[in-house]
Design brief:
heterodimer, A: mainly alpha, MetI-like fold, B: about 240 residues, alpha/beta, Rossmann fold, six-stranded mixed β-sheet, four-stranded antiparallel β-sheet, 9 helices, about 25% strand, globular
Chain lengths: ~210, ~240
Amino acid sequence: MIRSLSWNDILFFLDALRWTVLLAAIACTCGGVLGLGVALARVARSRSLRTAAATYIQIVQGTPVLMLLFLSYYGLSLFGYDLPPMVAAGVSMTIYVSGYLGDIWRGSIQSVPKQQWEASESLAMTRRQQYQYVILPQAVRISLPPTVGFMVQVVKNSSIASIIGFVELAKAGQLINNVTFQPFRVFLIVAALYFCICYPLSYCSRRLERKSHA
Amino acid sequence: MPEIMVNDIHKSFGAIKVLKGTSLSVESGQVVALIGRSGSGKSTMLRCINGLETIDSGSMTVAGHALDANPKHLRALRTDVGIVFQSYNLFPHLTVGENIMLAPTIVKKAKRSEARKAAEEALKLVGLSEKFDAYPDMLSGGQQQRVAIARSLAMKPRVMLFDEVTSALDPELTQEVLTVMETLARKGMTMVLVTHEMAFARRVANTTVFMHQGKIWEAGPSQDLFANPKTPEMRQFLSADVK
């Protein structure tokens, strides 16, 4: 039975938005930690570490995120791991994010001028101190625009989790549209809610960039 | 024992031999100027002295540290040997004060109050006390170079190396940097400088070393060397200098 949009639908959207934000936050946090490891391995002195990290990046970037999602949700169930949709989506998005952020941050680290390495080396700093006090603070500033741009993509791409039955914002839009048949209104609300998440991210990034002196 | 002892060092970059058996001895408090054409090996020699380039053969002892490839030994050497580069290489995300205090606090484990005091003293010496809280991009090239000198001095080195530190500066800014270096020389700092400022080398350096084709071609007291160059290569090099 077709019915009109109600206040309850708005609450349903807000609840779904919570799951979108949570999934994106898990993906960016866990993917960020893993991605930092990948980036550092990608610029490590050890050749085998560099090769392993490069291979990981190639595999992740060469695989559609949908396949990663299917592999974690259906693939792992073959081995007896019956993951809930939220966990499967979190794992696959984490892998996806780490592959891209690892590469973005690798590029940012390598963009710090070589002279900065030399200057810090000549001041008797260890490799760890060079990274901690000189290289990473500058690399973070360089990486801010592409990182935030990618995080906005992650928020929007989280909609892919709806395929395995995870009710996030896009899936909620589909469900409400099925009962109201008011696609323009429904998806306008969905788009506005996505914008409310993505715009502050971009705004904060611009402010941070202006504040930093790197 | 000399503060810097370089014995028959060789260095190649691929097939290009840059240093072909170079030896040098620098006593404590001495100022040595390395001059020569571009590509003669001056900067490579200087960078070898603080281990930024590894030598292929030969041996070196600097400020009591025998140079080898061990990272710990290299770091110990670098706490006693400061180097200032042509392109300043200040850390752009840190203020002037933080640039100077960073290495003493994290490398030498100095207390922040001590590091701050040393930073203020070093800044006073280079005439930039009022710039403690400024960021590098707010300073002129000459001021940035003076901060770079202060940053090295804050580590209280026994030896200072200068690699064409005025090459990127206009004559006015060059003069302010040279004045700081002259002050250091007068205070008895052991210094080795690669420079194209012939008048400065002649006036301030005790010894001038002319490098040519990866070798020390001529060396001696600066006044004598500039007044009576013995080799045609050095004569030709000096005649090209318009100062």
